[in-house]
């Protein structure tokens, strides 16, 4: 089919490549404009743009998706279907009604669960045991369109959001190819969403901050749900401290306050929480590299009794 593909981040790349391999005519790839990134603020193309260029595909980068001139350009391409995978903007009705076979979205959750911009992060943060991908016919709502296909995958106890992201990207690409095959044959199901939805809003800076008064298990899930991006953070004596890997040991310390370091050595940094202990295995002090706890302690000894997050309103006992 004649397909316009719309996507921006790494998650969308596998779907773009899968459509190309399946033999669809990709008449244009629409992605967000290049943006300054990194310490040097160098103008950087999106991952989808890089992949599209490698495939020799034409790329469109409108500043505003509602721009009448862009919508006219899109209409002139006469796509049979528009595929949207993590594009990053809500499509106006003028685009939704443009392709005769509809606008198809790949969403990284089992809809109607986790509608919104950050479904993978929140599924891991919330300790879910299962997630998945869903293809839908898009409508004017946020991830509210009729369902086409779903694919479930388990979330393992030690999975980071990065690991789940990569598996879902691959699963989503395969589901998309099958979805378009069924649409082409006129056999694609169209199932209205039912049941109570849940939501996965865009992550904010305050979502990164660790609340030490929560149970150790919730903090453990929070850390892996922020790895590799954007990182769960607290503070250590006025400096930002990011946690990358933790565990929940059975051993506890009676009377340990939330955020209080009770031991720091080769086995990790033991911290009190609202319920149980948390062992920090890998971390990163502001201005430094990601290090195993033992390596960081060699250059930065931390005395027992230090309270992490104590200089944050939402850290330590203040959370």
Question: Could you walk me through the main structural features you see in this protein, from its secondary elements to its overall organization?
Answer:
The chain has helices at residues 10-21, 47-54, 68-77, 93-96, 119-125, 161-185, 216-224, 293-299, and strands at 2-7, 25-30, 35-37, 42-44, 59-60, 81-85, 103-107, 130-137, 147-154, 232-236, 239-247, 261-265, 268-272, 277-285, 291-292. It is an alpha/beta fold. The chain has two domains: 2-185, 3-Layer(aba) Sandwich (Rossmann fold), CATH 3.40.50.170; 205-318, Methionyl-tRNA Fmet Formyltransferase, Chain A, domain 2. A seven-stranded mixed sheet has the order 5-2-1-6-7-8-9. It is elongated and about 65 Å long.
The sequence of SSEs as H and E is EHEEEHEHEHEHEEHHEEEEEEH
Please, what is the CATH homologous superfamily of the largest domain?
Answer: Formyl transferase, N-terminal domain
Q: N- to C-terminal separation?
A: 54 Å
Give the overall average pLDDT. Answer: 95
Overall morphology: elongated
Largest sheet: 7 strands, mixed
The name of the CATH topology of the largest domain is Rossmann fold
**What is the radius of gyration computed over CA atoms, rounded to a whole number of angstroms?**
23 Å
Lateral strand order in the biggest sheet: 5-2-1-6-7-8-9
Number of strands: 15
Helix content: 25-40%
Oligomer state of the chains in this structure: single chain
Estimate the strand proportion: 25-35%
Q: Helix/strand-derived class? A: alpha/beta
Low-confidence stretches: 313-318
CATH class of the largest domain: Alpha Beta
Total count of domains: 2
* Name of the CATH architecture of the largest domain: 3-Layer(aba) Sandwich
> DSSP helix count?
8
């Amino acid at each position: 089919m004649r397909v316009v593909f719309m996507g921006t981040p790494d998650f969308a790349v596998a779907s773009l490549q899968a459509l190309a391999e399946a033999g669809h005519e990709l008449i244009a790839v629409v992605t967000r404009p290049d943006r300054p990134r990194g310490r040097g603020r160098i103008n950087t193309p999106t991952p989808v743009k890089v992949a599209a260029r490698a495939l020799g595909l034409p790329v469109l980068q409108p500043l505003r998706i509602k721009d009448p001139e862009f919508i006219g350009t899109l209409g002139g391409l006469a796509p049979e279907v528009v595929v949207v995978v993590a594009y990053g903007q809500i499509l106006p009705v003028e685009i939704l009604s443009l392709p005769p076979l509809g606008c198809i979205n790949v969403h990284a959750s089992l809809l109607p669960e986790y509608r919104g911009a950050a479904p993978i992060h929140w599924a891991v943060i919330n300790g879910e045991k299962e997630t998945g991908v869903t293809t839908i016919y898009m409508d004017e709502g946020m991830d509210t369109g009729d369902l086409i296909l779903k694919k479930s995958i388990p979330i393992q106890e030690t999975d980071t959001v990065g690991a789940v992201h990569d598996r879902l990207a691959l699963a989503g690409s395969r589901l998309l190819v099958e979805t378009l095959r069924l649409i082409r044959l006129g056999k694609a199901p169209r199932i209205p969403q039912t049941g109570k939805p849940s939501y996965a809003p865009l992550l904010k800076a305050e979502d990164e901050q660790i609340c030490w008064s929560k149970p150790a298990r919730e903090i453990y899930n929070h850390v892996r749900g922020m790895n590799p991006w954007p990182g769960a953070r607290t503070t250590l004596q006025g400096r930002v401290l990011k946690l990358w890997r933790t565990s929940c040991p059975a051993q506890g310390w009676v009377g340990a306050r939330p955020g209080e370091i009770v031991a720091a050595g080769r086995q990790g940094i033991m911290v009190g929480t609202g319920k149980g202990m948390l062992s920090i295995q890998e971390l990163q002090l502001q201005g430094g590299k990601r290090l195993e706890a033992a390596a960081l302690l060699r250059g930065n000894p931390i005395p027992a009794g230090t309270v992490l997050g104590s200089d944050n309103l939402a850290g330590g006992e203040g959370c």
